[in-house]
Structure formats: C-alpha cells, structure tokens
Amino acid sequence: MGLFRRGPSSHAMDDAAVEDGVVENVDLAGAGEDVLAAERADEMSDASQETVITLAQRGPRGPWDASEVEDIGLRVDLGAIWLPGVTGIELRMEIDEASNQVTAVALNLNASALQVQAFAAPRTEGIWEDIRAEIAESVVKQGGSADDLPGPFGRELLARLPVRTPEGRTGHRPARFIGHDGPRWFLRGVLTGKAAVDPEAARALEDIFADIVVIRGSQALAPRDLLPLRLPGQAGSDGSAVPAAVPGLDPMTRGPEITEIH
Questions:
Q1: Distances from the Cα of 158 to the Cαs of 13, 29, 139, 257, in angstroms?
Q2: pLDDT (tens digit, 9 = 90+) per residue, 29-62?
Q3: Residue 179 to residue 247: CA distance in whole angstroms
Q4: Is this structure's pTM higher than 0.85?
Q5: Which of 88, 91, 61 is CA-nearest to residue 213?
Q6: How far from the centroid of its chain's Cα atoms is residue 76's Cα?
Q7: Who contacts 185 (Cβ-Cβ below 8 Å, separation ≥6)?
Q8: How far is Cα 212 from Cα 214, in angstroms, rounded to an integer?
Q9: Are the C-beta atoms of 107 and 205 separated by less than 8 Å?
Q10: From CA 22, how far away is CA 248, in angstroms rounded?
Q11: What is the number of other CB atoms lying within 10 angstroms of the CB of residue 232?
Q12: DSSP state of 86
C-alpha cells in the first residue's frame, strides 16, 4: 500500500515523488507493499466521539483549521483547502486520470514549486512523525537519501530523490517534505526547485503554506484518506459558486526543477 489513500473508496494513493519539477502521484519505492499503511478499522473518524487531538504549541501563524478563522478572506476555495491568493503564483491542480478526482494543488513561483495535499487524521494523535519515517524509508530504498531536520513547521525531511536524466545518467533531485498535524486532519507540503535548497527562495512558499486553511468537514474518513479537493470555479457542496481565479494565478504553467548530476 501507499502512504496515503485518496478517499473512503479505499483505493491506495501512491507515494509522492518529483517529476518534471513538480510533485506527481507516483510510487517512490516502486513497490507499495514495502510501505506500512494505517489500520483502517480502529481509526475511523467519528464525529460523535468527544476525544480531541492534542496539538503541539501553535506559533503565530498556521496552517489553520476552519474553526480558527472568521472567513475565507482573500483565499481561493479549493474544497478542503482554502489557498492564499498571491500575485505572481502559478497554480496547477493535479487530477487522477483513473478517478477524475483532484488529488493535489501545485504552486510555482520564481523557480520553486510547492505541492499541497490535505488528509484525514485520527482525533487522538498526529500522523506526521510516522509519515516522515515512511517517506524516508521509501526514499532510501529507491537509492536516495533523507535527513530529518528541524524547520519552520517543526520536523521536516530534506530528501535527495534519485532520477534518470534524458542522457541516461543518474541524478538526484532535492525535495523538502513539510507537514502539519491539525484537528482530525494532516496537511503535507513538498518543496522542490530552488525552495528545496535555498531558505530565502522557500520563504514565500512557506508563507503560503502557513496561511492555508483546512476544511475537514464532519464526514467519517479513515486516517490518511485524501480530503476532497475541487477545481477553482466548481460549485461547492452547497451549490454556491467558487471563485474561478485570483489575479496572478495561472493554473496551466508547469514548474521548475533542480537536478544534481552524478
């Protein structure tokens, strides 16, 4: 199985890897059976339960739960994610061809990229610690490396993902895996391009990640099920229209890449 699931249909979601400068939904390890998945039966979220997750001390910024903000503000409604609208950002929604479901949000800015996904999580504990270990194991098994380091959102992974260049040579593409445990949800970001190796280049995308609002909803989902996303402009669950665009957001442009050649 993969590290995450797309939804309550229980279809496995592949591990995240980097392809053509953005993070695509492909298997890092090449064999999903090598990665442990969460047990579904005992961890189903139940809105009737009174136990709540104990969060780490929150800093002066998010990511935020929907209960912590008054309204959407200048953010773009993408379903489970309200994304800050920033001039100059290029937005691309990643869609699974088999299910035709939106699986991730990819942002590009100044030779850097950020992929964001939101997942269901247990009420009683966060899942980022386990996920970091599983991602690191997958990267190492494929021939890369991963270092667990402190970062602006707590512990994160700095990985070097093995890639094959068009010339047939072996290279390594850097990527930073960041995460945040919220109440019954988990938000993961993957920084690639300059943002993976240059703190100054990463700052703008980190600020965007920090101002995301996650809308968990009350539906019962297994931990690691992907929270539903939708395209800008699609109607919400209440039938209301969603803003189709924010000035400066281009949903069609592909992102950058940085590859180390060996």
A1: 22, 17, 11, 16
A2: 222 222 223 333 333 333 333 333 333 334 468 9
A3: 27
A4: no
A5: 61
A6: 16
A7: 65, 80, 118, 119, 120, 121, 214, 216, 227
A8: 7
A9: yes
A10: 19
A11: 18
A12: -
